[in-house]
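ok posting inputs for the 5-O-phosphono-beta-D-ribofuranose job
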Amino acid sequence: MSDKPLVGIVMGSKSDYEVLLPAIEILRELEIPCEARVLSAHRTPAELSEYVETARARGLRVLIAGAGGAAHLAGVMAAKTLLPVLGVPVVATPLNGLDSLLSIVQMPKGVPVGTLAIGKPGAANAALLAAEILALTDAALYERLAKWRAARAQEVLEQMLPD
Ligand code: RP5
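and the output
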């Protein structure tokens, strides 16, 4: 298996890292090569453009964007590529992530961003959705994903309640 990254995770600040970590962990668990970068739509717009515009040619197939506040990162990335962009709203302001959620989910018609839940569950699901997209053309990954899902079901079935 090539270790060339298939999924690119971009976060607007290092302060987003903890929230995006579940995405990185799940991609690693599913043996999907990924890379993670800090790039900001408003603080490093040129570098962000360069990253997204070269993403497909470098072998990336899905992009995950995590940002807080007025989270335009995902939308700006989606504007620059036809790769699927999955947005993860991060809690970074007194609005508790609702600002980020609405910024990411309310893309005007024509430039889609697949928006996940606020915070770590959204980051985890972004990785799983990326895996599902990649599994469309990767039978071995499909099997790993199916096992991962079955293991989660087994965890629930083994949960015991106090007497
Ligand atoms: C956004 O602003 C980042 O994605 C982060 O969630 C938030 C705060 O960034 P820092 O001030 O911590 O760098 O651009």
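notes: The mean pLDDT is 97. The chain has six helices and five strands.
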